[in-house]
Each structure stands twice: as structure tokens, then as C-alpha cells.
User: Which sequence fits this backbone?
């Protein structure tokens, strides 16, 4: 089985043969390389021929995708919004809600 999943920067894949999850971080057409970062933090590289002869498939972002990034800020995870978007009772005027 060969992959039909094109490499896309920022997308996650799974090597079905070796059971490895990784994210594409760079694609260099000039030197025919696709740089990836595995879930454990290791960096790897493939050329286009080896990519398309592999057993890679698209996957959703793993729940623990930030594991390789030791110094990631909580704000960078995309779900750190602490504002629950509830109105501040001090700013509410009952007349604004009555018709």
C-alpha cells in the first residue's frame, strides 16, 4: 500500500506501517525534502519519492500534540480563552432588557 496523502504543512499523519504520528513542518521543493516532527519531538525528513511510497495517512491532531514542544505557551494551544462571554452583572441595566 502506498500513500495518497499529500504532504501539507501543519497537518498530522500516521505511518501505518510503523505506528508513528508526525506533523509536516517544512516542505522544500528546491532540495526535494519534507521535514516532519514526530509526536515524541524527533525530527525526520523524507524525499517526495519515499513519501509517496510510504504508508502515511491523514489523522486528526492528537490530543497530546503539544508534547514535542517543551516551551509552548498555553495561549498558543488555541483553547485558552478564559473569557466565558457572560455579561458582567455590573454593566447590566434591567431597562435595556425590558420593552
Assistant:
Amino acid at each position: 500500500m502506498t500513500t495518497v496523502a499529500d504532504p501539507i504543512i501543519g497537518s498530522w499523519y500516521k505511518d501505518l506501517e510503523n505506528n508513528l504520528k508526525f506533523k509536516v513542518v517544512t516542505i522544500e521543493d528546491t532540495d526535494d525534502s519534507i521535514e516532519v516532527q514526530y509526536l515524541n519531538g524527533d525530527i525526520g525528513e523524507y524525499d517526495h519519492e519515499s513519501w509517496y511510497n510510504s504508508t502515511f495517512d491523514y489523522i486528526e491532531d492528537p490530543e497530546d500534540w503539544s508534547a514535542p514542544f517543551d516551551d509552548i505557551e498555553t495561549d498558543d494551544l488555541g483553547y485558552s480563552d478564559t473569557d466565558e462571554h457572560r455579561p458582567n452583572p455590573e454593566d447590566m441595566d434591567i431597562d435595556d432588557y425590558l420593552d
About this structure: The first helix runs from residue 48 to 52. Residues 34 and 46 are 5 Å apart (CA to CA). The radius of gyration is 21 Å.
